[in-house]
Inverse folding.
């Protein structure tokens, strides 16, 4: 019995406890404010409800939450809804009935749109947008309205269906506007907006939006509704989707408040026909939302295109700098690196060394083993060269055919000679077969040049000097290292002369 009780408690906690108490608290505060704001906007029950924001906001948060945590959010919304309605003078029965209607609406919409992983729907995709409009904007408010209407007819007295149509329209507008807006609010963008670099710019734009919207809807003598569009576009371009969502909220608040009080450009028909003005305001808010989504989607597509082009350019640039048969840097990359390091050496008056490497008797290798085997041999030599470098500033590149160049900025003559001999020994110790030579293995000859470049000199000068040293090494019997201004360095014990 104890096990069953503990198991029941565990299962209850599994479905009731929220994923984050802090997040639940934030959502509860926002939902409470939205419910209070929605009731406050309607001065009397006889006035049509323009927009009920609470359900749309809650739906946006629910769609970003895994289903196992829905119970905690729905329980929070029920408590907040009942408390707000009672605070505005509704009876407990009415408060509970309206709360259950709101709960049905959110659950129906969320069930059709949500995923088990809590991944929010991408409303920029047409198929998902169509499902959102059909299920969340139309079917969910309609089911909620029918639920309330049936309860009123069963438990109170017969009601005409048109008596609850105002609630239906308000709920439709709340989900159509608030859910996309709150889904568009990105945490990363929100941090940027209120960060130190963007804070003043965002505050200036938000103040401008609020001021323009208040001026437009506070009076009805001047038809200046078009002034809202420039500041809204300003928010989209500079603050992106998150900033634009906040801007629409700043526009909607005074628009709804003053229109329901027969003020503003949409109240031209007066109190007797205010439904016409309310309908126009609802269309106006929907159009603004569509404009924001269209512009923001275009900006996001532009950014993605720019990023794809940048990635493609970097990939192409990286591929263009590589010698594909060996995987080393190619001649173009060598020229760029050589020029850059040469300039630094001239400026610093530091030593600059270069190794010119040639695979001995490589033509005989190709004649003996074929072109494919020759390419494989060059790749093996290239791998040995690449593994022999110790510093990140050093560079090995394929110069031409079986010739390679190693760039050694700030390397002394002694250091360059030591590295050259080590590379020669590594190639020799690899024992790559080469029946076209006396030793029967692949060997290399290395020419070393070290100078402190003068301003009038060019990078080609050190290549020429290293080439002279390489010529000296090859004439001296190959498989050895030679320096352009020093005696030939004989191979270490075990070195072969091909």
């Amino acid at each position: 019995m104890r096990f069953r009780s503990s198991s029941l408690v565990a299962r209850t906690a599994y479905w009731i406890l929220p994923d984050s108490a802090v997040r639940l608290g934030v959502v509860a505060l926002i939902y409470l404010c939205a419910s209070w704001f929605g009731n406050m906007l309607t001065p009397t029950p006889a006035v049509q409800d323009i927009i009920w924001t609470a359900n749309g906001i809650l739906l946006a948060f629910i769609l970003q939450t895994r289903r196992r945590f829905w119970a905690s959010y729905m329980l929070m919304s029920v408590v907040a809804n009942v408390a707000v309605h009672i605070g505005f003078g509704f009876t407990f029965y009415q408060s509970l009935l309206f709360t259950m209607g709101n709960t049905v609406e959110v659950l129906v919409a969320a069930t059709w749109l949500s995923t088990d992983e809590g991944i929010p729907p991408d409303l920029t995709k047409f198929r998902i947008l169509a499902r959102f409009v059909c299920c969340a904007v139309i079917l969910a408010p309609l089911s909620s309205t029918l639920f309330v209407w049936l309860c009123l007819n069963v438990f109170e007295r017969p009601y005409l269906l048109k008596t609850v149509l105002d609630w239906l329209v308000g709920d439709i507008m709340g989900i159509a506007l608030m859910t996309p807006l709150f889904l568009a609010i990105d945490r990363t963008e929100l941090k940027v907006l209120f960060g130190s670099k963007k804070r003043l710019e965002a505050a200036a734009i938000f103040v401008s939006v609020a001021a323009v919207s208040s001026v437009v809807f506070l009076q009805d003598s001047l038809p200046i509704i078009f002034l809202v569009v420039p500041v809204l576009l300003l928010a989209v371009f500079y603050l992106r989707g998150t900033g634009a969502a906040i801007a629409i909220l700043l526009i909607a608040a005074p628009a709804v408040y003053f229109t329901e009080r027969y003020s503003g450009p949409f109240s031209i028909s007066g109190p007797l026909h205010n439904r016409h003005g309310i309908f126009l305001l609802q269309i106006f808010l929907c159009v603004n939302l569509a404009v924001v989504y269209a512009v923001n989607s275009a900006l996001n597509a532009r950014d993605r295109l720019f990023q794809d082009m940048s990635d493609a350019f970097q990939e192409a640039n990286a591929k263009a700098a590589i010698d594909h048969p060996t995987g080393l840097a190619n001649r173009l990359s060598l020229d760029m690196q050589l020029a850059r390091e040469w300039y630094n050496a001239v400026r610093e008056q530091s030593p600059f060394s270069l190794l010119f490497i040639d695979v001995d008797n490589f033509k005989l290798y190709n004649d003996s083993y074929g072109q494919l085997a020759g390419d494989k041999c060059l790749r093996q030599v290239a791998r040995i060269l690449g593994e022999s470098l110790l510093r990140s500033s050093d560079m090995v590149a394929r110069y031409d055919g079986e010739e390679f160049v190693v760039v050694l900025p700030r390397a002394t003559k002694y250091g360059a000679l030591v590295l050259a001999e080590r590379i020669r020994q590594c190639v020799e110790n690899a024992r790559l077969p080469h029946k076209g030579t006396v030793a029967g293995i692949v060997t290399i000859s290395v020419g070393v040049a070290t100078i402190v470049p003068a301003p009038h000199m060019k990078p080609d000068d050190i290549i020429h000097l290293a080439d002279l040293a390489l010529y000296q090494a090859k004439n001296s019997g190959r498989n050895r290292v030679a320096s352009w201004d020093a005696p030939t360095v004989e191979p270490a014990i075990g070195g072969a002369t091909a």
